[in-house]
Specification:
heterodimer; A: 326 residues; alpha/beta; Rossmann fold; Alpha-Beta Plaits; 2 domains; six-stranded mixed sheet; four-stranded antiparallel sheet; B: 259 residues; mainly alpha
Chain lengths: 326, 259
């Protein structure tokens, strides 16, 4: 059953159209969420806690009914055909959903039975996923003795038992130390290389930037922006030169900002106290003019910084706040 | 059908494995009711109770039926605890994301709780035997006692699971359990017969399904089939109604949480 993944006529692996969820108390967790994920893509839902990412994901894995809109996974409707959807997807929950009294292998045996794998096939599959996530040497130890990173690996192994075509991961590296995070990222890249479509939620900008082919920025239950990290960054229009003036020159900030706005190659200037963020087409050609404007206005510089737009600039631009101010 | 058996089997084995890993808790679960109630309470009140009032050769003989049903009560009411933890740590959601029948988790829990309860009832009757309480209806009576236990246990376990699915935190769950369990015991014929209670307590005790279960188990141990059969007939009717109400409530709670 070869499925061709190229060509625009192929149905997307995941399709959400106008999904909304209002909880019985009246809280709106998601409103008009729409996106499509192509086969083989890693797609990220990026947003702060409580933005509606997990709600969206729970609808897609069929454990939560949407209040409005519809969603399809591999062409199957998540409300109408939940059992068929469950058969084809893997799920890695946000919490360490581990039974600490069972060994790693027992978790996988349980999951294999729930996916109705025949015993002989299950044993082979279990060995395969254990070595894929690098947990084979700890497979027969009870999960109580696992570290956070090992529990996460077991979570992922559980999600891989059904050989899913689509894998859903809720905050795959939340609360992990740096080394474990990097390892989990490697596993995710390896899964992508095997052709698995992955939808993950994250509130880590670097995770979205490093792993995802495309992301949807979600805030307050709505999609605020969507695209590949580089498109989103390029969409902001140019690199950023950031000038910090000496606090004594606070009164001159406005004048300087006006002077710089007139220069060629300057797209926008925003000020916050004694800091000016200047968006420029090319820093190489604009920097001399900016610096001469500083001298002409008689300002003293305390600090100059130049950077390409980062995903946090994108997040700030679309939501009006930084992802970590809550 | 084969898929269903595979799911329920694997889920039930998980409960068995969990229990066997918690050695201390297992010992405590199995022996606590006998040690506390039958041996301590029974012997403590042996001389403080009037055999004319309890209508039994000894207080322990009277108490045995009460302890059997109390054990069924406590096991049933605690039957949802593991699901509560599964709900809180996300394990339940993981199970629900797999292509299993929506009922298999619940059925596995029923099978597990009912099996443990039946074993415990056997152990309690065995300990009572050592204290000279020999059920007059013999093995047949013991089988009927376990049958009554299953009928009562199903409804109780259903209540417990419904609570586990509906509560906001496990603190709420355990306070509800505490709130239910002791009054159920005191307002029943577990410790004293109806005739020895103040009128208002005996009236409340008659509304308690536990009283009906005890009143059917007790003659099986103390008097014989003739005395027991009418009570057995009544308890079957009472329990069918009780179970129907509890299962309906549990199904509602389950649908609300898991869709």
């Amino acid at each position: 059953m070869g499925v061709t993944v190229s060509g625009p006529a192929i149905a997307p692996a995941i399709e959400a159209a106008g999904l909304s969820k209002v909880y019985p108390g009246g809280t709106t967790a998601a409103e008009d969420i729409s996106f499509q994920v192509g086969a083989g893509e890693v797609f990220g839902l990026l947003g702060p806690n409580g933005a509606g990412k997990t709600t969206t994901l729970r609808i897609l894995i069929t454990v939560l009914r949407p209040s409005g809109g519809h969603a399809r996974v591999l062409g199957l409707d998540v409300v109408e055909q939940p059992t068929q959807v469950r058969q084809l997807i893997g799920y890695v929950p946000q919490e360490r959903a581990i039974d600490r009294f069972l060994t790693g292998r027992e978790h996988l045996e349980l999951l294999a039975a729930l996916y109705h794998l025949p015993k002989a096939h299950a044993a082979a599959r279990i060995d395969e996923v254990l070595s894929l996530v690098g947990l084979a040497h700890k497979a027969d130890e009870v999960a109580r003795n696992y570290s956070g990173g090992m529990k996460r690996k077991l979570d992922i192994a559980c999600g891989l038992i059904p050989s899913p075509k689509v894998l859903f991961m809720d905050e795959p590296t939340l609360g992990l130390d740096v080394e474990s995070r990097l390892k989990i990222w490697d596993h995710i890249r390896e899964l992508k290389a095997r052709g698995i479509t992955i939808l993950l939620t994250t509130n880590y900008l670097d995770e979205a930037d490093q792993l995802c082919d495309r992301i949807a920025i979600i805030d307050a239950g709505r999609v605020k922006a969507m695209g590949s990290p580089s498109e989103l960054k390029a969409g902001l229009g140019g690199d950023v030169v950031s000038l910090t003036l000496s606090p004594a020159d606070l009164a001159k900030v406005e004048g300087l900002s006006q002077a710089i706005k007139g220069q060629a190659g300057v797209r926008a200037v925003s000020t916050k106290q004694n800091v000016l963020d200047i968006r420029v087409a090319s820093p190489e050609s604009s920097l001399p003019a900016i610096l001469s404007a500083v001298t002409a206005q008689g300002c003293r510089l305390e600090f100059v910084e130049y950077h390409r737009p980062r995903l946090d600039d994108v997040f700030l631009a679309y939501t009006g706040r930084k992802i970590k101010d809550e | 059908m084969q898929d269903y058996a595979q799911e329920v089997g694997a889920l039930t084995m998980r409960w068995v494995k969990r229990l066997s890993r918690e050695k201390f808790s297992m010992l405590f679960t199995l022996f606590q009711p006998m040690v506390f109630w039958l041996i301590f309470f029974g012997n403590l009140f042996q001389r403080a109770t009037d055999t004319q009032v309890v209508q039994a050769p000894s207080y322990i003989a009277f108490l045995a039926a009460g302890v059997v049903v109390m054990t069924i009560l406590n096991n049933g009411l605690a039957g949802g605890v593991d699901l509560l933890f599964d709900k809180e740590n996300g394990f339940l959601e993981r199970l629900m994301s797999t292509p299993i029948s929506r009922t298999s988790v619940i059925i596995s829990r029923f099978i597990f709780v009912m099996t443990i309860t039946s074993l415990q009832v056997l152990v309690i009757l065995g300990v009572a035997y050592l204290f000279g309480v020999h059920p007059v209806t013999g093995i047949g009576g013991v089988v009927v006692i376990i049958g009554i236990g299953l009928l009562f246990g199903i409804g109780l376990t259903a209540i417990s699971m419904a609570l586990a699915f509906s509560v906001k935190s496990h603190g709420d769950f355990f306070s509800m359990l505490g709130f239910l369990s002791l009054p159920m015991i005191f307002l029943s014929t577990a410790l004293v017969p109806l005739t020895a209670m103040p009128w208002w307590m005996s009236w409340l005790a008659r509304l308690n399904p536990m009283t009906w279960a005890i009143d059917a188990v007790r003659p099986l141990i103390l008097t014989g089939w003739t005395a027991a059969l009418p009570s057995i007939a009544i308890v079957v009717v009472v329990m069918v109604v009780f179970d129907a109400v509890c299962l309906y409530g549990a199904a509602k709670a389950f649908q609300k949480t898991l869709g």
